[in-house]
Specification:
The strands form seven sheets. The protein has a four-stranded antiparallel sheet. It has 435 residues and is mostly beta strands. The protein has five helices and 26 strands. Bound molecules: 2-acetamido-2-deoxy-beta-D-glucopyranose (3 copies). This is Protein yellow. Controls the pigmentation pattern of the adult cuticle and larval mouth parts.
């Protein structure tokens, strides 16, 4: 098939695919519950108000072996029992109770040294470690208090021991800082690892070197929100989140030069940006790398996104919160709306798909949680509010524009208004020039 035909053909099929339901439901909850040491302890926590089920919203997931990790931010003081939890993936119930990870003690609010106060997104790496950023806070927006500093925690998933706790330096954050996302860049060895953390409201990108046990902070105008993109309508609820900057991030597989590309987008924006990890890994680049960040195209209307992930083949998946949908983009192609597909859309089951992750078996996992209803209105606890869904990636991209490969080179030139992106970096074939 010739490239041109390929695109047209799949664009047609893509619109057809919208009607099908590709993600399968794995878990579903009306309301969250926790596995206490005893039923008595659970009832006691509910009776004394230390656990208020209706204040618990799951926001982040990760999959490792037969565990699904689920984070619950402490948006209210004292009523969210544990912020980092897991459930066994193969448990034969649809609405399992959350089990604190690694244990109850490690989830103590305000215990800076040993506890976790609020965790948003989590990332497992190929060295069987779980990277967990603790904001050290409780509350939300103007009720936020920070008993502890931001701290990056790394757990050994095999032993359930904490390998490291690193407090961000005062210079890594500012008075507006709010960091909810983390990307992990693993090199050739387990020691050669970096974490990138996006400061959504303080507009920065913090890099942490595991080997050096050091962090540094980039600032860039591309981390700022687009003033024209601050309006949202989700599940008929209209609201403005105009100040939210750099948020979702995804890393490509290694390029020919050994480095990866970090794609990111501010939340109040429809635009994608990209930077090489060669820049981010180098602390001397702070302050003199403005031209090493590149602006790509806008995704098109209603394309706010908070979470994205890329698989080992360079397929990016991203949540489309205004569309109750999950989008895809094959990074072998130019970043533009025509090359984006929708792998699933559901106005009931995918209301606010808060997190997307890929497991080691090439399945895409999604959690939807009706976050905007929770924050701005309220949830009906007679309804199913939270869902975990998954599907094999090859099933999801079938018949979408993202499937069209591997020989479609039609879109590899990257035009944009802000400079010439080194296009050869996009080659999926190391060492082979495409032009
Ligand atoms: C926080 O903001 C909300 C609305 O923006 C307001 O109603 C409330 O009084 C504020 N609370 C505090 C503690 O400032
Ligand atoms: C990392 O650095 C922090 C201080 O910045 C220190 O408290 C901690 O012990 C260090 N950890 C390792 C493993 O070197
Ligand atoms: C880091 O960046 C500085 C400044 O651009 C450059 O001189 C240096 O060679 C870079 N280091 C590495 C290891 O690439």
């Amino acid at each position: 098939m010739k490239p041109k035909h390929c695109l047209v053909f799949f664009a047609f099929l893509c619109s057809q695919a919208l009607a099908t339901f590709k993600l399968q439901e794995h878990f579903q909850w009306n309301i969250l519950d926790y596995e206490y040491p005893s039923e008595e302890a659970r009832l006691q926590a509910i009776l004394t108000g230390r656990f208020k089920p209706e204040n618990n919203l799951p926001v982040g997931i990760e999959i490792w072996n037969d565990k699904m990790f689920i984070s619950v931010p402490r948006w209210m003081e004292g009523v969210i029992p544990a912020t980092l939890n897991y459930v066994p993936l193969n448990i034969p119930v649809k609405n399992p109770r959350l089990i604190p990870y690694p244990d109850w003690e490690s989830n103590e609010l305000g215990n800076c040294e040993k506890g976790l106060s609020t965790v948003y997104r989590i990332k497992a790496d190929k060295c069987d470690r779980l990277w967990v950023l603790d904001t050290g806070t409780f509350g939300i927006e103007n009720t936020t208090q920070n008993p502890c500093p931001y701290a990056l925690n790394v757990f050994d998933l095999r032993t359930n021991q904490r390998l490291r706790r690193y407090e961000l330096r005062p210079e890594d954050t500012n008075a507006n800082t709010f960091i909810a996302n983390i990307a992990v860049d693993l090199g050739d060895t387990c020691d050669d690892a970096f974490a990138y953390m996006s400061d959504e409201l303080g507009y920065g990108l913090i890099a942490y070197s595991f080997r050096e046990n050091k962090s540094w902070r980039f600032t860039h105008s591309y981390f700022l929100p687009d003033p024209l993109r601050g309006d949202y309508t989700i599940d008929k609820l209209n609201f403005q989140w105009g100040e939210e900057g750099i948020f979702g991030m995804s890393l490509t597989p290694p390029k020919a030069d050994g480095f990866k590309l970090l794609y990111f987008s501010p939340l109040a924006s429809h635009r994608e940006f990209v930077v090489s990890t060669q820049t981010l890994r180098n602390s001397s680049k702070v302050g003199n790398s403005w031209n090493e960040f590149y602006a790509l195209a806008e995704r098109g209307p209603n394309s706010h996104t908070t979470s994205r992930v890329m698989d080992d083949k360079g397929l990016q998946f991203f949540n489309l919160i205004d569309q109750n949908a999950i989008g895809c983009w094959n990074s072998e192609k130019e970043y533009k709306a025509e090359n984006h597909g929708i792998v699933d859309k559901d106005d009931e089951e995918l209301i606010f798909p808060a997190d997307v992750k890929v497991d080691r078996n090439e399945n895409l996992w999604v959690i939807s949680d009706r976050m905007s209803n929770f924050l701005l209105s309220s949830l009906n606890y007679n309804d199913i509010n939270f869902r975990v869904m998954f599907a094999p990636i090859d099933v999801l991209v079938k018949d979408t524009v993202c499937e069209c490969r591997p020989n479609d080179l039609s879109g590899l030139r990257i035009p944009h208004r802000f400079g010439q992106f080194p296009v050869q970096l996009y080659s999926p074939y190391p060492g082979k020039s495409l032009f």
